[in-house]
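Data deposition worksheet. Section B asks for the primary sequence of the deposited chain exactly as it was used as input, without tags or linkers unless they were present during the calculation. Section C holds the resulting structure in token form. Section D is free text for depositor observations; keep each observation to a single sentence. Incomplete worksheets are returned to the depositor.
Section A, Depositor: J.P.
Section B:
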Amino acid sequence: MKPLTLQGKTIMLLLLFTIAIIVVFVAVQLWHELEIINAYKESEAQILTLTVENIWEKISNLNTPQEMKIILIQKKLNSLKEKDTIREAYIFDNYGEVVASTGSKIITVERKMHDISILNKLEKGESIKGEMTINKKNQEFSFYVPLEGSNKDSGLIVRLFFSLGTYASALQNVLLPAVIIGLGIGLVNIFLGVFLSKLLIGPIQFFNEAASKIASGRFDLRVHVKTEDEIEELADTFNYMTAELVKMQQRAMNANPLTKLPGNIVIMEQINQRISQGVKFTVIYCDLDHFKAFNDKYGIHKGDEAIKLSGDIFKEAVKSCGNTDDFLGHEGGDDFILITTPDKSQAVADYIISEFDKRIRSLYSEEDLKRGYIAAHDRDGTEKKFPIMSISLAGVTNMHREITSYAQVTNIAAEVKKKSKSIEKSYFTLDKRTN
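Section C:
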């Protein structure tokens, strides 16, 4: 199954919101309508109790036996039931015995208990006029009407039952408003969905298309959005990201393939950046002593191992002794450049020299290590003895004098490197000249 798009999810959420609103509205309206219906039914029932009292008063004035009077009131109650004015009714005496009713089998235990409660109230001299009971289980309510008339001692009570309002009847009154409200909310949400699509989904699709073009190599592409809100901020961030991708691409193209460290162009940018910012820095240049002789003797593969080892040691030095924003570059061959702060330069250099002197020996044969040198041809072709490789470090800093250009740094480094290489061991020389 294909996943929903953002636009599809938006429409789905709005649809669910519409349905939820309609359901809540219908539920509230049903409850409210049911309350109104039951209140109306209760008012009608109270009026009907007065009617029943008037009917009994007239019957009680007749000069007939009590049994005939009960038959007459029963007929009136049956007539009310046939007209659906009442649900049912029955008459009971002051012993709780039913003497007449509008139907059969209408006396339940629950009803009997209510009747006994009414008789207890009468014994205590309490009034039961307007006494009402509600049975939601059977969807009914009832009123007790004492049949007094002219004979105050008749001792008869009629119980009238009425139907409570149902949700089905309430729904008939709520259905039309619910449909109108639902259509209204639906139309509003349609317009809201279109608006959100243009406001949010449109820009997202636009950024998505732009990202696809950039992924295909269009690093010159920039997006222009003027909304003065978070979307415009996103556009600015998007353009910044693209510019940074261009820089990363240039760095990757300039990176040394052996160590993956940045090359000459990035090294120059880093030094010029620090010069323009006016920060204090120390640039440490590295050169491996007797590397060519080692490379000639052991081969290019071993030479590459020596260069990788040097790069690893430089990385460890920065991590252990340097700063988080220190820079490490590789100009090529055995030439590494590290930029740090003046306060860290000595510790970094000491770490590099210590680790290099210990670990470079692993690349030599045991025989050469025992002799302490290797026999190889010099640049002029003559065979010569070359000591175990050492590392010469030259430090250039602006702590003691002003440095204004990358070229000035390289010129100073060339002079300082000569001094380091003149010493027959791994050594760090830091230029402290003031001019």
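Section D:
Residues 6-60 form the longest helix (55 residues).
The chain has a mean pLDDT of 85.
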